């Protein structure tokens, strides 16, 4: 199933070129998405290189000017639509522009998760220095973002897809970057439009680093739209 989510900004101001979604240029959705994924990965590599660079000042100035040219080329060809929201056969929402999982979003890790036979969400991941908060450790907000997402996926595969109402975290041990880690999440229960899930980021041997519980609420408007679509 694929859903095109309408852009409220574009609906209100269809001629605007000021929104992050953009309103001019060719649509990239569905055409050359493999190329777009490669571009996004190149930008991730660029960000890592910027964080780690020891280049002298004049070299940095020159590279910045070259990058500005490329940024302008891309900006001149903005998409007219959002990336479509699709659901895989397991019921996990997939969206190439998502901030956590989006293959076409350089900001995304990107996290690749699976649904296990017992309906647990499981993702192997490795943070990078770009995610640093305290020295040598991953920023707690970055861990929270990953956990928000896998808990959201756990309730989604259980049929309770929703917006995060609350997310409670316990930071047990520092989270290292540059090492293999595992994020897991399970659906716990539902009451009406509310669903709860729990999860964790752990070392491969299961040692927990961050634990999370979350409440997800299916917005009234989603329920109405989904009921209306049947
Ligand atoms: C068209 C179809 C679209 C289908 C889309 C399908 C899937 C979407 C895709 C992905 C989702 C799935 C997986 C993705 C993975 C990751 C998830 C990341 C999610 C986020 O990154 S998300 C961003 C942060 N999140 C927000 O931005 C929320 C802002 N907020 C709101 O959008 C509304 O506020 C909302 C929707 C929460 C409720 O609005 P509403 O109008 O539907 O419901 P209402 O207010 O009536 O509340 C009903 C009952 O929930 C209680 N309640 C309300 N809010 C609460 C809260 N915060 N804490 C505790 N309880 C709360 C009330 O007290 C009442 O409780 P009671 O029934 O007991 O009285």
TrEMBL record:
Protein EC: 3.1.2.2
A single BP term in Gene Ontology: fatty acid metabolic process
Start and end residues of each stretch annotated as Disordered: 1-28
Name listed for the protein in its UniProt record: Acyl-coenzyme A thioesterase THEM4
Catalytic activity: hexadecanoyl-CoA + H2O = hexadecanoate + CoA + H(+); (9Z)-octadecenoyl-CoA + H2O = (9Z)-octadecenoate + CoA + H(+); dodecanoyl-CoA + H2O = dodecanoate + CoA + H(+); decanoyl-CoA + H2O = decanoate + CoA + H(+)
UniProt cross-references to Pfam families, sorted A to Z: 4HBT
Annotated localization: Cell projection, Ruffle membrane; Cytoplasm; Membrane
Organism: Streptosporangium subroseum
Similarity comment: family membership: Belongs to the THEM4/THEM5 thioesterase family.
Coiled-coil portions: none
